[in-house]
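stage 2 :: seqdesign
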């Protein structure tokens, strides 16, 4: 008989319950959120009738980055996504910066989503559209999702699942009802004097972004080394199709749509009975559902990095009663709310996209580094001409960063410096505690 004295119980492992199609759906759900309800008007303001072309061009450029993610991701079966890839390729320092930028891209995304939420809710309740109503509504929405998440995951998971389908129904209705009514004359009404292509492409990086969050959960996928590439490629193709169709229908049915804050609701209002209500309710449910998931997942990244002593230890505190990382949840909500009150959708989306560019560039670089080292395990999905594509992805990210304003780059630099300082404080505190 084998003695059990001194035996250690192994730590619990994540359950690998997500299949190939479930993984693909998770990628799509991570990307299609608020932007599709606001982007048609923003793109029309920037590039006019050429906006569907911008959607396709940006989709092609992002697809290059996605293919790099697909190859690199096919080497790993653990949780972490780009943080894990960068840690393996370049070490702990660059990996921390990727994790830190991931947090900030989500915070800025949360601010953008809050702006879309209040815009569409204001269509149904005009008082929300006033400056005071906007601030009160944003604060109340954040307070509710924060309280829900502090009380526990069980109270939150049902809400995330319930909101998932809401974002697709009004979009499918829009495309089905409006495809036959697209007018060349309405398209021509969208013309702008000086198209702002770089701004449009950058905002589409925000719209196509989020897949990097979807792959973080690879540790709960049944066969992530085989399924990551499939989920990413099928997911980005589906997303590009949805975005292009929505852009064509909105710009082809709503004259001068660039002047409208709620383009999907306006387009549906012209196509089906009570369309404005249907579009607004769909957008409200979609954005609030995204916020619920945001308040659930992003604090766990803060919590995890604090547990590894890469951020101050207070963020790793667990509530004695509810067993949730309550401090991380509250800090996450306060920062996102602050940026939402200060910014517009376009401002917040732009900053989120800028933060993502460095994550994408480092993941593309990871493909080259891991191939050069012939790192194990081998990639189960190999992109033809991978290093060339990776270089193209890095150049694309570098080009967009080079077009940014000085104030935007200063914001990025401040985020990086703050992260490095917090990491240094966390390491110093750990050293002092063990001395």
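stage 2 :: out
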């Amino acid at each position: 008989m084998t003695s059990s004295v001194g035996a250690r119980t192994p730590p619990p492992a994540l359950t690998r319950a997500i299949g190939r199609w479930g993984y693909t759906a998770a990628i799509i759900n991570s990307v299609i959120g608020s932007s599709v309800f606001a982007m048609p008007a923003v793109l029309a303001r920037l590039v006019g009738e050429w906006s569907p072309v911008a959607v396709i061009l940006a989709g092609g450029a992002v697809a290059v980055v996605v293919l790099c993610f697909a190859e690199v991701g096919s080497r790993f079966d653990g949780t972490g996504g780009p943080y894990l890839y960068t840690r393996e390729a370049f070490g702990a320092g660059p990996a921390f910066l990727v994790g830190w930028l991931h947090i900030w891209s989500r915070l800025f995304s949360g601010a953008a989503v809050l702006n879309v939420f209040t815009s569409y809710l204001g269509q149904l309740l005009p008082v929300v559209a006033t400056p005071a109503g906007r601030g009160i509504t944003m604060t109340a929405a954040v307070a509710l999702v924060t309280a829900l998440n502090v009380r526990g995951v069980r109270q939150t998971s049902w809400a995330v699942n319930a909101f998932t389908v809401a974002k697709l129904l009004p979009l499918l209705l829009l495309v089905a009802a409006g495809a036959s009514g697209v007018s060349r004359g309405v398209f021509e009404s969208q013309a702008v004097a000086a198209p702002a292509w770089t701004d449009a492409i950058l905002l589409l990086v925000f719209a196509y972004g989020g897949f990097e969050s979807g792959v973080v959960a690879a540790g709960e996928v049944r066969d992530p080394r085989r399924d990551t590439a499939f989920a990413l490629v099928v997911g980005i193709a589906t997303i590009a199709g949805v975005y292009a169709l929505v852009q064509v229908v909105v710009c082809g049915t709503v004259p001068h749509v660039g002047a409208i804050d709620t383009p999907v609701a306006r387009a549906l209002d012209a196509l089906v009975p009570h369309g404005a209500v249907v579009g607004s309710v769909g957008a409200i449910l979609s954005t609030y559902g995204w916020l619920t998931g945001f308040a659930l997942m992003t604090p766990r990244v803060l919590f995890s990095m604090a547990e590894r002593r890469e951020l101050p230890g207070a963020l790793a505190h667990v509530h004695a009663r509810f067993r949730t990382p309550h401090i991380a949840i509250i800090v996450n909500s306060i920062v996102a709310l602050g940026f939402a009150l200060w910014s517009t959708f376009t401002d917040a989306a732009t900053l989120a996209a800028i933060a993502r560019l460095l994550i994408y560039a480092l993941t593309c670089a990871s493909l080259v580094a891991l191939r050069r080292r012939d790192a194990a395990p081998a990639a189960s999905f190999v992109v033809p001409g991978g290093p060339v594509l990776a270089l193209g992805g890095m150049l694309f990210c570098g080009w967009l960063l080079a077009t940014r304003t000085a104030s935007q780059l200063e914001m990025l630099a401040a985020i990086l410096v703050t992260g490095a300082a917090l990491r240094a404080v966390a390491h110093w505190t750990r050293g002092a505690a063990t001395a």
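stage 3 :: structure notes
- The mean pLDDT is 85.
- The chain has one domain: 20-426.
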